[in-house]
Amino acid sequence: MANERTTPVLRVEDLSVRYEPRLGTAVDAVKHASLTVSEGEFVGLVGESGSGKTTLAQAVLRLLRKPGRVANGRIWWGEDDVTDATENELRPKRWRDVATVFQSSMNSLNPVVRIEKVFTDVITAHSDSDADAAHERACELMDMVRIERSFLRMYPHELSGGMRQRVNLALALALQPKLVLFDEPTTGLDVVVQKQILDEIRRLQAELRFGAILISHDMGTILDFSDRVAIMLDGEIVEDVATDTLLTGGPQHPYSVHLLGSYGELLGEDVEGYDAAGLKAVEEREEQVAQIQEAVEVPTIVEITNLVKRFERRRGFRVEHVDAVTDVSLTLRKGEVTALVGQSGSGKSTIARIITTIESPTSGQVRYHPEGGGEPWDITRLNRKQRRVYGNAVQYVFQDPYAALNPALTVAYQLSRPLQNYRGMTKQQALDAAAELLEQVGLTPAAAYLARLPHELSGGQRQRVVIARALAPDPTLLIADEPIASLDVSIRAEILELLQSLVLRRGVGMLYITHDLLSAQMLADHAIVLQNGQVQEQGPAKEVIENPQAGYTRELLDAIPNPFQDRSVA
User: Fold this and answer.
1) Are 512 and 527 in contact (CB under 8 A)?
2) Helix or strand or coil: residue 77?
3) C-alpha angle 551-553-559 in degrees, rounded to nearest 5
4) Roughly how many angstroms between the first and final C-alpha of the chain, as a whole number?
């Protein structure tokens, strides 16, 4: 027994992974990486997009596909060297020795198969259990992850995102594996559900004593939940250290300082060796905005009064009503950022879709104040000319930079089209203006980016292009819908600083939609907290976040990981 306890559940030694496409240059995605995970240990693997996290995970799970291959090193699952094992040799070990919880909860489950059938297939395929025993085990697993057994009869689309991810967790634990790898298991979930899922993972891991690897770009989550942190940069593990040591003794590698400092900046914590220029910029901007507001009355762009949006859904002969937004009022002004904060389903995106005229309000008013004065326009009754003016004035920055850009079109083309369509430029004028826009969003020199396709850009670079495209019509209002949700922590800080500078330099107004109160505090002048379509609290962002009055606001704040505070050891 003693020997079993000392054998790591995973051992990776000097692993290198190379991608060798038929056409193009070979890329070393993982370089001489070594990592061990012991029984009952929770290891966090963190790094920016493109650092090699996912490639390392695929190699560890033996899911690497061509043109990728293991160029060097060995992989052990417990005492078994699986580096060169065949699929037939790996099949009986999967789910028993190693299991995984993937990033997208919906895509991980078959949409046309009931939940119980998914459990039954896994359990009967990888064990000697019959259908009755598999059903009993499925019920036990649903109890374990705290979901009613009745949900076994449902299809994946009938469950919320958080419940689907709990089902994936239960599936991973079906055969009591020794190691579970969690690949961004909470991406796309709001901060409260994210905390619930991670608390559940940590509880079960401590109870069942399986080894765990949590892959994430969220430094706060990694620090809050992991016993040990491995930090990747350009395919290398540049630091592998106990979490408490990282927090108390300070990171040693400059990149570790950068990641830790970026997250500490959002929390208002100082990290030795990190230049918190962004935090200073926030304070300077607050002073400038205060001076402007004292000197002049800030022009209104969009005014919303008593907004209500009700959706109807038919179920057979019955019609159900869902109130997505109830009696919401807010004002968006030039040079100011208003944050809409709340969980998924709180009504944030519905309000944005109404402002952009994608949806129509059930009742209430949304009025646009045109530049140059005059009577406000009711956006539900715009004529053709007004609609074109309004389309120029209000632009959208989408959440997912990977889906927001056409993968087959160059950056130059995607920026030139709105410049030609909205501002009547010639092709050459549009190309020159596109280069200027790239310079404004920090992509310099612009000539190095104009001819690129989206897949040739990092996540942060893509989001900068999305922002540049939104600026092309020279808008007065930007609607930024979770613009940093899918980005790495250090890139999040960069994008927030970029948005701040655009508001300050260009004087645009901004509606910033988020479930993250920390980024709202860093960026916004005003904050409105929504729950189930209703305003729970609103006021100056700093006051709402530092002195919350509503219980729901405190719940959102409590869900934010703060590893710099005293950590409670599970």
Assistant:
1) no
2) strand
3) 105
4) 24
Residue 256 belongs to a domain: no
pLDDT in tens, 362-384: 999 999 999 877 899 999 999 99
Tell me, rounded to whole angstroms, the distance of Cα 353 from its chain centroid.
20
Distance CA 444, CA 209 (A): 49
Listed in sequence order, the residues at least 6 apart from 296 whose beta carbon sits closer than 8 Å to its beta carbon are none
| Domain CATH for 34 | 3.40.50.300
Write out residues in the chain with pLDDT < 70, as ranges: 1-6, 104-107, 187-188, 250, 266-297, 315-316, 486, 489-490, 565-570
Question: How deeply is 312 buried, as exposed, middle or buried, from its count of CB atoms within 10 A (0-12, 13-18, 19+)?
Answer: exposed
Note whether 205 and 212 are within 8 A (CB): yes
C-alpha distances out from residue 488 to 25, 101, 338, 546, Å: 26, 20, 23, 25
Pairing of strands 10-19, 27-37: antiparallel
306 in Cβ contact with 363 (< 8 Å): yes
Residue range(s) defining the domain that contains residue 411: 400-474
Is residue 301 in a domain? yes
pLDDT of residue 462: 87
Is residue 420 a part of any domain in this protein?
yes
Per-residue pLDDT of 291-309, as tens digits, reads: 544 445 679 999 999 999 9
Q: How distant, in Å, are the alpha carbons of 136, 302, 485, 504, 521 from that of 500?
A: 55, 20, 17, 6, 12
